[in-house]
């Protein structure tokens, strides 16, 4: 019986290499699992034949057009095989092949294997060889339209943007993704990545704080937005969370309105703790920290209660040291 997955990838009209006259000069090289393999893998006949011939061309160091076609069959059967991709690159270099055609081939492969690291790595190498990333933003956008949190697509997109200076239109793209899913942490991370490169000027920081607070007003328990808010505040000249009083005022308004998002409480704890230490052992601010830490430990973030108990105890210790001086 034929393997159904092999039929899908190679087609029912696929001709075995052993029956191809142009491959008559090649003796296939079987895989050597040793005399007593612990777990013998039940390879299909097609899989075994393709890789037996692949091992043979590696052994003879053949880098020809037929060898390139053989790697295509091998990658249809196992697109995660690093050795096949590496040898394919060696063949492409040896043949001085048309790398634009290789990009077209990779677009098809990525469409079927969008979360395969080896495919994306091969794509990067080919783009570097061409010194042309003109297709990469569209390619990654298509992948992200299917799965907006595809780590490999984001990684490749950041590499292309950074390497070929493609920052110009990235913020509108990221804003669209955030509008579609405000909890898309990858999109928030990409926004920070772009602005970190462009520069967090005071004007940019102010704009981003307003942008983020408006998003938090819509979804108050959005961890991604709260993390981004903290990240932007840390870009201020002194790096303090209290550098922009309007953010603390915004957070206190949420709290006083009854919101008890753990991300809101964690932010308030960090700000009050920072202020208490700056103010020379401010007991009023310290009591706020202790109360919020207790609420987190007993109600809103019980799974990390030991951490919040530690935060409160550590602040007490720091304030005691300050008072003793």
From TrEMBL:
Cofactor names: Mg(2+)
Keyword vocabulary terms for this entry: Magnesium, Prenyltransferase, Repeat, Transferase
One Pfam family in the UniProt entry: PPTA
One GO location term (cellular component): CAAX-protein geranylgeranyltransferase complex
Transmembrane segments: none
Keyword presence, Transferase: yes
InterPro entries membership: Prenyl_trans_a
GO molecular function, one term: protein farnesyltransferase activity
Annotated EC: 2.5.1.58, 2.5.1.59
Origin: domain of life: Eukaryota
Family as reported in the entry's similarity comment: Belongs to the protein prenyltransferase subunit alpha family.
Protein name, entry field: Protein farnesyltransferase/geranylgeranyltransferase type-1 subunit alpha
Organism: Drosophila lebanonensis
Organism lineage: Eukaryota, Metazoa, Ecdysozoa, Arthropoda, Hexapoda
Gene: LOC115630432
